[in-house]
Amino acid sequence: MTLALMDRGFIGYSFDLETSCSQNIPSDIGVAILLTWLLDVMAGGVFWCGIVCSTWVFMSRGHTPRSRDNPCGDTSREYVRMANVMADRSAFM
Protein backbone atom coordinates (compact mmCIF):
# COMPACT_ATOMS: atom_id res chain seq x y z
CA MET A 1 0.00 0.00 0.00
CA THR A 2 2.75 2.42 0.97
CA LEU A 3 4.79 1.81 -2.16
CA ALA A 4 1.73 2.17 -4.40
CA LEU A 5 0.90 5.55 -2.86
CA MET A 6 4.50 6.72 -3.02
CA ASP A 7 4.62 5.74 -6.71
CA ARG A 8 1.73 8.17 -7.18
CA GLY A 9 3.58 11.04 -5.49
CA PHE A 10 2.28 10.71 -1.94
CA ILE A 11 4.51 10.72 1.12
CA GLY A 12 4.17 7.71 3.35
CA TYR A 13 5.62 5.48 6.00
CA SER A 14 5.44 1.74 6.26
CA PHE A 15 5.36 0.46 9.85
CA ASP A 16 6.09 -3.24 9.82
CA LEU A 17 7.82 -5.65 12.20
CA GLU A 18 9.43 -7.30 9.16
CA THR A 19 11.14 -3.98 8.39
CA SER A 20 12.55 -3.40 11.87
CA CYS A 21 12.19 -5.07 15.26
CA SER A 22 11.47 -1.63 16.78
CA GLN A 23 8.35 -1.36 14.58
CA ASN A 24 6.36 -3.61 16.86
CA ILE A 25 3.08 -2.08 17.97
CA PRO A 26 2.73 -4.24 21.12
CA SER A 27 6.02 -2.75 22.42
CA ASP A 28 6.24 0.65 24.10
CA ILE A 29 8.98 1.79 21.71
CA GLY A 30 6.84 0.72 18.76
CA VAL A 31 3.94 2.84 20.03
CA ALA A 32 6.27 5.81 20.54
CA ILE A 33 7.63 5.51 17.00
CA LEU A 34 4.15 5.18 15.52
CA LEU A 35 2.83 8.17 17.48
CA THR A 36 5.79 10.25 16.28
CA TRP A 37 5.05 9.28 12.68
CA LEU A 38 1.34 10.01 13.10
CA LEU A 39 2.18 13.58 14.07
CA ASP A 40 3.35 14.03 10.45
CA VAL A 41 -0.07 13.14 9.01
CA MET A 42 -1.53 16.33 7.62
CA ALA A 43 -5.16 17.39 7.35
CA GLY A 44 -6.70 15.25 4.62
CA GLY A 45 -4.02 12.59 5.14
CA VAL A 46 -4.71 8.90 5.67
CA PHE A 47 -3.67 6.50 8.40
CA TRP A 48 -4.07 3.00 6.97
CA CYS A 49 -3.83 0.17 9.45
CA GLY A 50 -3.87 -3.53 8.75
CA ILE A 51 -3.27 -5.81 11.70
CA VAL A 52 -2.48 -9.51 11.56
CA CYS A 53 -5.87 -11.10 11.04
CA SER A 54 -5.11 -14.79 11.52
CA THR A 55 -6.64 -14.91 15.00
CA TRP A 56 -9.74 -12.92 14.02
CA VAL A 57 -11.12 -15.02 11.15
CA PHE A 58 -13.90 -17.52 11.74
CA MET A 59 -11.68 -20.46 10.86
CA SER A 60 -9.50 -19.78 13.92
CA ARG A 61 -12.34 -19.99 16.44
CA GLY A 62 -11.35 -23.54 17.34
CA HIS A 63 -8.02 -22.41 18.81
CA THR A 64 -8.63 -18.77 19.80
CA PRO A 65 -11.80 -19.26 20.76
CA ARG A 66 -13.24 -15.86 19.86
CA SER A 67 -16.99 -15.44 19.67
CA ARG A 68 -19.66 -12.75 19.81
CA ASP A 69 -19.86 -13.28 23.58
CA ASN A 70 -16.07 -13.55 24.01
CA PRO A 71 -14.42 -11.28 21.41
CA CYS A 72 -11.09 -11.28 23.28
CA GLY A 73 -10.80 -15.05 22.97
CA ASP A 74 -8.53 -17.24 25.05
CA THR A 75 -6.15 -14.69 26.54
CA SER A 76 -4.10 -17.44 28.17
CA ARG A 77 -2.59 -17.87 24.68
CA GLU A 78 0.23 -15.44 23.89
CA TYR A 79 -0.66 -14.95 20.22
CA VAL A 80 -4.29 -14.14 21.11
CA ARG A 81 -3.15 -11.57 23.71
CA MET A 82 -0.75 -9.98 21.20
CA ALA A 83 -3.48 -9.79 18.55
CA ASN A 84 -5.73 -8.08 21.11
CA VAL A 85 -2.96 -5.58 21.96
CA MET A 86 -2.39 -4.85 18.25
CA ALA A 87 -6.12 -4.27 17.70
CA ASP A 88 -6.43 -2.05 20.79
CA ARG A 89 -3.42 0.09 19.96
CA SER A 90 -4.35 0.36 16.28
CA ALA A 91 -7.85 1.52 17.22
CA PHE A 92 -6.33 4.02 19.68
CA MET A 93 -4.15 5.49 16.95
Report on this structure:
The protein has 93 residues and is mainly alpha-helical. Helix content is 34%, strand content 0%. The chain has 3 helices and no strands. The protein has helices at residues 2-7, 28-38, 78-92. The longest helix is centred in the C-terminal third of the chain and has 15 residues, at 78-92. The protein is elongated, with a radius of gyration of 15 Å. It starts with a helix and ends with a helix. The relative contact order is 0.13.
State which percent range the strand residues make up: under 5%
Helix vs. strand class: mainly alpha
Rg estimate, integer Å: 15 Å
Mean pLDDT: 85
Can I get a quick summary?
Helices cover 34% and strands 0% of the residues. With 93 residues, it is mainly α.
Topology (elements, then pairings):
Elements: H1 2-7, H2 28-38, H3 78-92
Primary descriptors:
mainly alpha, 93 residues
